Every structure is written in structure tokens, then in C-alpha cells.
């Protein structure tokens, strides 16, 4: 029996590369498609260094429909596609909405067209908790009603889910959308991790770059929220746990165990930590002092977001297993490896 072949778009990115490692270690054959607009080619060698297997790689922009078509012509029997490739900088999307709608939605539409044409009928979609907006209820359930997205990026995830749901209703395609909460950390080898381009928007890479002396000081965006310590609460999830949720999703679709043609799952730990709790854990577990100060709130931030993850436990057979210590120590170890290598 040949191993099932999985096409991973954006497979050299932060979550993509960790997912490729877990897929290979679960026995899948992996093909990576990436345009290298927000990733680096050396990650391909790092994946091979971890698993011993070099995934086949296509450097390709999914807006080039003919090239995407060529890939599907060449690669027969794709058992499932995991679609990560998208622009994902929330702040940039507010300034450049057309760039985000064009790239994120056309790439998805081109992919769905090829999947239908070539009979690749299983899709795992990289969605985000951002689809919920600033929630009225906590914990957030998959049935929690979407609020208006806070950014064009968030809109592309809401619209992406809508496009996929309607396609599944009309075509032989089945899909699972995974709504990530806050992915952090890195593979324990220190060989792959987050590679933010420019000044990081997200908390954890800003913390690790501050600790590494790349950034002068971390600004904590507000400590006057209605939370126990006044700072915002998020559901941080280790990227390796998140990667494993994608493997479980492929398993479910390929074995036709999905109960709906389109399913959605919250992927988090179900536990929220505040910004200060993350900072304190980073300092304590890595035995260092972080230079930070309290500043004004960041517009658009929700006070608190954390997931009800019971559905993924029940239907995907998936549950996060890595805790806060793994998150902050693996993130720091990766940053140190990066600093040594460059
Ligand atoms: C977390 C907390 C900030 C930076 C975003 C996207 C979401 C997903 C994950 C893609 C907040 C605070 C941050 C800093 C700070 N990405 N913070 N100083 O905003 O919850 O989610 O990333 O899918 O779609 O919206 O993550 O890491 O930016 O912020 O105090 O320098 O850290 O205010 O409370 P966020 P984040």
C-alpha cells in the first residue's frame, strides 16, 4: 500500500513546516508548494534533518492558475490538501485590504478549481479564531456566532470558510477548517520555528527577539483591561500540538470518518493566559529578565479569547499535550539557534 500523498500549500512556513514534519512521521508522503514570500528555502533542509525525508518542493504562487494546474497534472492521487498559503499579517491587512482579498481568496479559489478538476477531494483549511471577532461568550465554541471581522485578514478567513462550505455542499469535496487560537513555540530540535519578516506583530516572537537583544524593549499593550492582572488573555497553543491536529484531520477525511462534508474545529488548549503570565513564565523557565514596559492598548485587541476544545477531542481524537513551559522554552531555544546560525 503506497503512503497517502498530502499536498501542503505554504509548507515552508511556521505552522506548515511543523505540520510537514508530523505528517512525514505519521507515514504520509508530503509535497510542499510555497512561493517563499514569507518563508525561506533552508527550512526544506531542516525538515529533512528532522525526519530524514526531503519533501518534494514546488516553488509556486497559487495565483498563477496554470502553474497550479501543472502541479496537479504531475502529482496524481493527492489524498488530501492542507492549505496554509495566505498573507496573515493582521495590521498589514488593514492598510492593504485589496492585496489580502486578492491573494487569500483567489489562491483558495484556484486551489478548489484544481481539486475539483483532478478529484483531490479532501481539504484541511488553515482558519483562525479571528473569525469570531471580539466574542460575547467564553469559552468560544464552534457554534459561537461570528462577529464582524476586525481586519481584512479576518474577513478572508470568514469568507474562505464560506467559500469552502458552499463548495463542499455542491461538489464531491470534503473539508475540515481548523480555527487556530494563538500558535507559539517551536520544534524541540531547534531546527524549525517562527521566522517573522521584519518587526514581529505577535507577542511571542517579540518576546524572544527582545530577550535576544534584537529588539530593545517589549511593549505590553495595555494593563487596564477587565482581567485579573489587567492584560489581555489568549489561548496559546504549541505549534507541534497544532501540527498534530492537521494530521488527525487528514486521517479523518481520508478514512471518510467525517460526519459532515464541512466540519470546523477550535484548535487551542482551552486555557487562557494573560500577557503578564506569558512574560513571567518566559522569565522563570528560561532564567532570564525581560526588558518590558506597559504602553497604551493596541486598537482592535479583544480583552480575552480562549477556546472550548471539546469538539476536537471528541471527533478528531485530538487534544493539546504541551504546556506553557514547553511553549516558552522551545520558543527561546529556537531564537537562540537562529541567533547562532545568522
Ligand atoms: C497577543 C496578546 C496583544 C505584541 C493574532 C491574530 C490572529 C492569529 C494570532 C493568525 C495581545 C499582546 C502583542 C506585543 C503585546 N494570527 N501583545 N505586545 O492579536 O491575539 O492574534 O495572532 O491567524 O489571527 O489576530 O496575537 O500575539 O499579536 O497578541 O502586549 O508586542 O499580546 O495586545 O493581547 P493576537 P498577538
Concise summary:
This protein is an alpha/beta fold. Helix content is 41%, strand content 17%. It has a domain at 5-185 and 236-268 and 308-321: NAD(P)-binding Rossmann-like Domain (Rossmann fold, 3-Layer(aba) Sandwich).
How would you portray this structure in words?
The chain has 342 residues and is α/β, with parallel strands linked by helices. It has a domain at 5-185 and 236-268 and 308-321: 3-Layer(aba) Sandwich (Rossmann fold), CATH 3.40.50.720. Helix content is 41%, strand content 17%. It is built from 11 helices and 13 strands. It has a 7-stranded parallel beta sheet with strand order 3-2-1-4-5-6-11, with helices on both faces. Helix 1 (14-25) links the parallel strand 1 (5-9) and strand 2 (29-34). Helix 5 (97-118) packs parallel to helix 6. The model has no long low-confidence stretch (mean pLDDT 97). The structure holds UDP-4-deoxy-4-formamido-beta-L-arabinopyranose (WQD).
